[in-house]
Amino acid sequence: MNNINLIDKYTRRTNRVRLKLKKGSRKRKIVVYRTNKFIWAQIVDMLTGETMVSYSSKVLQKEKTYKKIDKKTQAFQTGENLAKLAKKKNIKNVLFDKGKYAYHGRVKALAEGARKGGLKF
After folding, report:
1. Is 16 exposed, middle or buried (0-12, 13-18, 19+ CB in 10 A)?
2. Does residue 104 surpass a pLDDT of 70?
3. Residue 92: closest CA among 39, 30, 46, 7
4. Which of 13, 24, 36, 95 could cysteine-pair with 29, CB 3.0–4.6 Å?
5. Dihedral over Cα of 18, 21, 27, 33: its sign
6. What is the chain's Cα-based Rg?
């Protein structure tokens, strides 16, 4: 598979996910970004484009209670901590925007952590 087809694949997936989100009735979404080392998640108001809450595995590593753990567990804890911050801002219902990433591995772990923390999507 050459680079052009790979880019088209990710663009098609992103467009498909975003189109489904536009049909949703809720006003907030969790946006996920991941690299080989870290994972970021933020809750964005879809009407204004304002970031309401954000959290990343980088912040998780800077905390004093951090122990060396694998990336999947870091993603799960990032989701839980994002949900805790969202609860403080009285955010309960959100949509999940995984963007170009497939729903498995660390992205799935982040979503499960957010669900365990109390978010509904």
Report:
1. exposed
2. yes
3. 30
4. 95
5. negative
6. 15
What 3-state DSSP class applies to 101?
A: coil
47, 51, 52, 55 alpha-carbon torsion, rounded to 10°? 140
CATH 3.40.50.150 fits 3-117, yes or no: no
7 burial via Cβ count (<10 Å: 0-12, 13-18, 19+): exposed
Q: How many CB atoms lie within 10 A of CB 9?
A: 12
Report the candidate in 121, 96, 106, 107 with the shortest Cα–Cα distance to residue 44.
96
The β-bridge relationship of strands 39-45 and 51-56 is: antiparallel
Span 46-92, pLDDT tens digits: 888 899 999 999 998 888 677 788 999 999 999 999 999 999 999 99
